[in-house]
Specification:
This protein is α+β, with helices and mostly antiparallel strands and 622 residues long. It contains 17 helices and 8 strands. It is flat, with a radius of gyration of 55 Å.
Length: 622
């Protein structure tokens, strides 16, 4: 009873510390056990990883050995030096396997004394010795011009190059049996070969005489000897993959891989059994901790419920919508902390109220009290502030678009400028209004069966890029835009496509937009803008809308210009006709004057003739 009274007389903080201390002690014990469990399981996983690494290197050894026995021994570097890439690869993996096997289990030396591990080590050593013997035999056997096969080929050439008149058919039969053996690895072919050699030499001995006969028989005997030596060494090496030294190595590798599989299974079973035991132990410890926690929870629930009554009234006032005065804090134990938290709650709610009033007055740039920005109410109010800012921003974008529409509507109403001047004015204001760095405006021209793009205006473009005023309407981004009738946006700009030049140098823009100029469904041109920043969606929509206005205005302007040009041409033709008519009239007057002068001269001549006739002068002259 005295122990219970002493416990109840303790402060709440000490009681909680004792309770949580006991739970933490059990938790610490459980954590230590779990840590040890995971440490040992990690060690077993490490062993499993080492065994997997051994398995991988054994597979690499197997691949290197198999390919070496199949093809790589024929390589010239092996025949010359007795080693090549595959023998080195085998040796490297063999050394790695030995190292891994020596260290399996780490410092604890798990599985080092295991019979299976010892068997694996012995098998690895045995394979290494047999592989070394196989290397020596294969090099001795040789290939093509090396080793016994090289001697065999030289013996063959000695027989074939002999001037002795033997029957070539017999030699061809020997070569056939020889090649059949090398191809099929069947021992019946060496027997047939030797039988055929006996027949061949007997025929030569019976049909020929002289020293040349002895020479050819000696060469055939050398050929037979070299062939039989190759057959003998091939028998030791193994005519098939399952025979001879190759078969032993192959079987050892198969057995080694099976042993590694057994070792992997053994490590896994050992690790799983250990994990199960530890899990059961930790589970029991957890249940003990849980039971103790439940008991302490019921005990302290009753203790804390009495302490909470002190602040119930203040909470009730707050729930009724009335801000109570701050609660006095006289102690530093848990109840005092609770009162402190309640006072902080009052401060948070007052901060939220002040912030809400500021938002209601339109002060959207107001900042929430930094001490309370992370609570739920603060986040909600700040989110509402962001929504109001977004609404204000949308209104600002609408106002920006309306102002721009009004500006360009006023610009497009100016009929005093010609098409080029109007295009230049519109492009200049458009580039500046959307904050781009440069731009160009193109018009589709279709005259006399020729269709091309005419660049009406540019703004801030480097002049050297535009060699001609005309562009092919079927090529490039501009042509694609006009062909498809859709806006094209480029953010991955090819190097050299266009450069923006300033006093500091040149740079490739990061953003290009090409807008079609459409009148109903007909594309009459395009606008190309480039800059170092991307346009926002509302700016793109604004540009597409302005493009419609520009297309309509340029179309009207073009019709107006064409009409004025036709009127000017008509006036010029009329003036030219009037000048020609005046010239003809003057020529007619001159002709008339000349005709009158000629008539007058004719009359004077006729008068003079009559006078002369009258005086008789003309007759005497006749």
């Amino acid at each position: 009873m005295k122990l219970i009274e002493f416990f109840l007389s303790l402060r709440i903080r000490i009681k909680l510390l004792l309770a949580f201390g006991s739970i933490m002690l059990l938790s610490a014990i459980m954590v230590i056990m779990i840590w040890q469990t995971f440490t040992n399981i990690g060690e077993y996983k490490k062993i499993s990883g080492e065994v997997d690494a051994v398995n991988i290197h054994i597979l690499e050894m197997d691949m290197a050995a198999q390919y070496f026995m199949l093809e790589a021994f024929k390589q010239e570097d092996f025949q010359k030096e007795g080693t090549n890439l595959y023998t080195d690869t085998y040796r490297q993996h063999d050394d790695t396997v030995r190292t891994l096997l020596a260290g399996i289990g780490g410092e604890q030396g798990f599985f080092q004394q295991d019979t299976l591990t010892a068997s694996i080590k012995d098998r690895v050593n045995r394979i290494a010795l047999r592989f070394k013997s196989l290397q020596e035999l294969l090099r001795k056997r040789g290939f093509k011009d090396y080793g016994l096969e090289g001697d065999l080929r030289r013996a063959i050439h000695a027989v074939e190059n002999s001037s002795f008149p033997y029957d070539k058919v017999d030699m061809l039969m020997l070569r056939r049996h020889e090649k059949d053996f090398f191809l099929r690895k069947d021992m019946k072919y060496p027997q047939e070969f030797n039988n055929k050699v006996g027949e061949f030499t007997a025929r030569i001995a019976a049909e020929h005489e002289g020293p040349e006969k002895d020479d050819i028989l000696e060469k055939i005997a050398a050929y037979q000897k070299q062939f039989n030596e190759v057959v003998a060494i091939d028998s030791v090496i193994g005519l098939k993959d399952t025979g001879g030294l190759k078969g032993l190595i192959r079987n050892d590798l198969i057995g080694l891989k099976a042993s590694i599989g057994m070792l992997r299974t053994k490590v896994k079973d050992f690790s799983d059994a250990y994990a199960r035991k530890r899990i059961i132990f930790v589970g029991v410890l957890f249940l003990v901790q849980l039971g103790l926690g439940i008991v302490l929870a019921f005990v302290y629930a009753d203790i804390l419920s009495r302490a909470i009554k002190e602040i119930r009234q203040a909470m009730k006032s707050l729930a009724d919508g009335i801000f109570p005065g701050k609660m006095p804090i006289k102690t530093t134990e848990e109840i005092g902390d609770t009162k402190q938290a309640f006072n902080q709650l009052l401060d948070r709610m007052q901060a939220a109220t002040s912030f809400s009033e500021a938002l209601g007055n339109g002060e959207l740039s107001s900042r929430y009290d930094a001490n309370f920005r992370e609570d739920v109410l603060a986040r909600s109010l700040i989110k509402m502030q962001e929504k109001l800012k977004e609404a204000q921003e949308r209104q600002s974008m609408i106002h920006w678009a309306n102002e721009g529409t009004a500006l360009f509507s006023e610009l497009l109403k100016n009929q005093a400028e010609d098409t080029a001047a109007l295009a230049d004015t519109v492009l200049k204001h458009l580039v500046k209004y959307v904050g781009m760095n440069q731009g160009a405006l193109y018009s589709v021209v279709d005259r006399a069966g020729e269709r091309y793009l005419d660049r009406l205006a540019t703004f801030a473009y480097e002049r050297k890029r535009f060699v001609s005023q005309r562009l092919d309407p079927d090529q490039g981004i501009i042509g694609q835009c006009i062909a498809e009738g859709n806006t094209i946006v480029l953010t991955d700009i090819p190097v050299g496509y266009v450069q923006i030049t300033s006093g500091l140098g040149e740079a490739t823009p990061r953003y290009i937009i090409v807008l079609p100029l459409k009148v109903r469904e007909d594309v009459v041109g395009a606008i190309e803008l480039a800059g170092f920043h991307s346009l926002k969606p509302h700016q793109v929509q604004f540009l597409e809308k302005i493009a419609e206005y520009v297309a309509s205005a340029l179309g009207s302007r073009q019709v107006y210009d064409d009409t004025q040009k036709l009127l000017a041409d008509a006036r010029e033709n009329n003036q030219r006709l009037q000048a020609q008519e005046e010239e003809i009239r003057q020529h007619a007057e001159e002709m008339q004057a000349m005709q009158e002068d000629m008539t007058r001269q004719q009359r004077m001549l006729e008068a003079e003739i009559r006078t002369l006739k009258k005086n008789g002068t003309l007759q005497s002259v006749n």
